[in-house]
Amino acid sequence: MKRAAHVYAERFAVERDPASAAQQQEAARWEIGPFDRGSVPEASLWLHGVEIETKQRVWIALRGHPVGWVANVETEVRARAVMASRSPFIVPVLHAGPGIVYAEPPPARPRPQLRAADAAACAVQACEVVAQMHALGEAAPYFGPSHLRLSERDGVWRIAWLLPGQWALDSLDRQLAERARNPTGKKRPAPRRTEDSPITVARRAVVELFAELLGPHERAGRDELERIRRKATECADMPALARLFLPLVAEPVECAARIEAMPVVRTVPKRERDWDAIIRDGEATLPSISRKNAAYVALPLACAYHQRATRRAAAGEPALALEDVERALKLDPCVTYAATRAVLRDRLGQRAAARAGLATATVAARATFAAGGVVRDNNGVIVGTAERVAPADLAHALEVGGLLALHDDEPVEAMDALLEAFTLAPTAARAHALGAALFRCGHVAAAADYEARSVALAPDEPRYVWALVGSLLRLGRAEEAREQALALLRRSPDDAAQREKFARVFGA
Amino acid sequence: MAGALGLTAAEARADIIPEPRRPSEWKETPPPMPEPPPEKELPTLPLVVLLAVAVATASALRLRQPAAQVCG
């Protein structure tokens, strides 16, 4: 490559201007579309270059239109996890965010035909990578030949998996596979979405990889393939599957040691998102995009701030949480965030400010909700649209407002807010809080009705049952009250606290 | 398709780019809530015992009444 005119991420000399390459990659992804229809050359999905310091050749997947920011930032966070895994069977990721820079992978096609021992070794390597990905909470790596590549060095075959990869590349793989299966190109019904677990999907894909790599003259391997196919369905994790290939590999001792070191994952854990990293990226990205497209980053970024605020609140850091939620509200004045701000202000001893701020936000949200997202001028003419307010979001804000009013000993105000919240989106907690407000207003029979609904919605919640018991006793319906309490004891026979409470109120 | 409509590819894309949204998958943790309403004070045993005694007494009286009539 000539001396670079273009540099990417200050580390990589690249063949062309990254901005125009990003546009080309975006256009190629649009060409492919969401239904695997369009076909583009694979090269159009990459920007090629070299790492300036090492002269290593690299392939770069660039970010496209800001509409894809959420997917991009998530993929890049996964790419950093892949970088940290340092597996010899994964194509090295040299840089992640913005864009992902991979060391140049081996060619994708054609798949080689291997001896059984080599095919089995590659299958074991695939098991190892999948097990590592599953441990990271990465459920579905792409198995197609553009991602799961193979290379040979000194007669030794090994896999070189491009992770986290690109959906567009996987789409090209699927199109090629479909053309091979169905050369006439006649339209066939779309395959049904699989409900199989990630472990099952990976198990099947690894066995098929082995079958695909097995040379046509590998008779012994073919016999083993049938055994492996039968036994694979009993494997609950990737190390168990890898052990099925052990009789075939050339170096079983070394291979067995690798298998023993693999993580055993039987249920892929939920991947915790790194909100700090997402927020850093969002704040860095926001100034670089046009005003017109800013909301594609601002709205998800506000979500990220709100998630971090929620975690900080749970960790007993309300002041830090409040900073996050204030930023979220600047980015997106959403009524849910206003409700969270009110809760946090309340925890910090600022109940008056909490209620005033929430009241303003609730009034605005109620108006938007009533208008169905339509903005009219003074003459009632539609002049634009606004973000719609979901009933659940408005109900949440009303519930928070109602609870704060209840704590301020304003049961009438609380009752109005909680009744509206329950009507919009009934939940056990709302019915319970509404019951409490009604009780304090002296409407004991109505309180008992809503408390009975809270118990019906969440029968195992003792707090709701005892609230109902209290109202029934006040109404002189002692036998009904006793029945409700007894039902609670029957549902949780080992709960000593409930037994003790029952004995205090009703005797043994 | 875009050409047939007299649109450039970029214009066609601009028409189908979705509206900005709050990603639902980024709402994984429920937001914090205020404390629930304080629990009601429930009457403790003596009151209930009194009620029970009262009910038992009333029942006993009703039972005795016909017997008294027979005796009378």
From TrEMBL, chain A:
InterPro entries in UniProt: TPR-like_helical_dom_sf (IPR011990)
Name used for this protein in its record: Tetratricopeptide repeat protein
Organism: Nannocystis punicea
